[in-house]
UniProtKB/TrEMBL annotation:
This is Plus3 domain-containing protein. Residues 160-288 form the Plus3 domain. It comes from the Eukaryota. InterPro entries: At5g08430-like, NERD_dom, Plus-3_dom, Plus3-like_sf. The lineage of its organism: Eukaryota, Viridiplantae, Streptophyta, Embryophyta, Tracheophyta.
Length: 329
């Protein structure tokens, strides 16, 4: 089973990337830099808009009334924000980033915001003009004033079943277990997300297979000692899914290919852009925290392996890893 790193594909179109974000796995190609709001700084690296805003706050070059800036000055950051700030300090030293580099990226951000503001005003004026029907059409629409209202509804946009989109709403078993600690909001958060289910092979001889499914709901069942057990429901799996059946593995392109094939065969409904955006917005903090925790575990394994075998020369950044790990712990 192949594994594809998100940094080697454009986050916007899936093409060959040109600029990679210093602080997150996002990457972008030359044609999508403006539309995806990427800010090049040095050679093949830069910042996406989310990381750019956080870096500006970290450097203290934003408005002083920003709530996040106030929390930074007071040291009152969430776990995710604290990890990101510490990681940025490491990146800044490793790549010799200066305040001038950040100021240059800030000017790019301001210029794009001004350009977007002008474009939105132009679009608003165009929309107003388009709503004024010609006099010849008004003659045919005199039956009722309500019929003169121009509908502004747009057709539903479907999201492409690709790795970057599905990752926005993908939950590992560990994160599902953590969400289960808040049962009152559990169903609302997991419904519509994607999980990897480990299924036994039909003959029982081969190793387990895994299938990417979309959660359609939950069901409470009676467990041992009259305890309530919560199961997940999926449209393409007839049986209820126990939490222990979920995988902690990363998504692969092969998983998305299988899911895409089921959608093309009419076995699954294609997700919409609005659904994925809403789900990603609700779960963003939990998913990012889970990714950081996973990376820290991998980092600790590398540190232990380097210490055990004395391979410090083969791990030139081991001192940075150890320092970062000590800061976090």
């Amino acid at each position: 089973m192949s594994w594809n790193c998100a940094r080697h594909f454009c986050s916007n179109c899936g093409g060959k990337p040109r600029i990679m974000c210093y602080c997150c796995p996002k990457a972008i190609c030359h044609q999508c830099i403006d539309s995806a709001e990427f800010f090049p700084i040095k050679q093949e690296n830069g910042f996406c808009k989310d990381c750019m805003n956080f870096v500006l706050l970290s450097e203290g070059i934003v408005d002083s009334d920003s709530s996040l800036h106030k929390r930074m000055s007071l040291g009152d950051l969430s776990t995710r924000e604290r990890y990101l700030k510490e990681y940025y300090e490491i990146i800044k030293k490793q790549y010799s980033l200066t305040l001038g580099d950040i100021q240059s990226a800030r000017r790019q951000l301001k210029n794009r915001e001004k350009r977007k503001s002008c474009e939105s005003l132009d679009d608003a004026n165009k929309n107003k003009r388009s709503r004024v029907l010609p006099r010849t059409k008004l003659c045919f629409n005199t039956t009722s004033p309500s019929e003169e209202v121009v509908s502004s509804k747009t057709p539903t946009l479907f999201a492409a079943v690709v790795l970057d989109n599905i990752r926005l709403a993908y939950l590992r078993r560990r994160l599902v277990g953590k969400l289960l600690e808040q049962p009152e909001s559990f169903e609302n958060k997991v419904k519509g997300t994607f999980v990897l289910v480990e299924l036994p092979s039909p003959d029982g001889r081969q190793r387990k297979t895994r299938q990417l499914v979309q959660v359609t709901g939950t069901r409470k069942t009676s467990g041992d000692h009259d305890e309530v057990d919560i199961k997940l429901l999926a449209s393409n799996i007839p049986n209820e899914i126990s939490i222990h059946m979920l995988s902690n593995a990363d998504l692969s392109e092969k998983d998305c290919e299988d899911l895409r094939q089921q959608v093309q065969n009419g076995l699954l409904r294609m997700p919409t852009v609005e659904e994925l955006e809403q789900k990603a917005r609700v779960l963003h903090e939990e998913i990012v925290d889970d990714i950081i925790a996973t990376e820290l575990r991998v980092l600790q394994v590398k540190i232990d392996r380097a210490n055990e075998k004395g391979w410090r020369r083969e791990y030139p950044l081991i001192s940075c890893y150890i320092g970062r790990s000590n800061q976090i712990s």
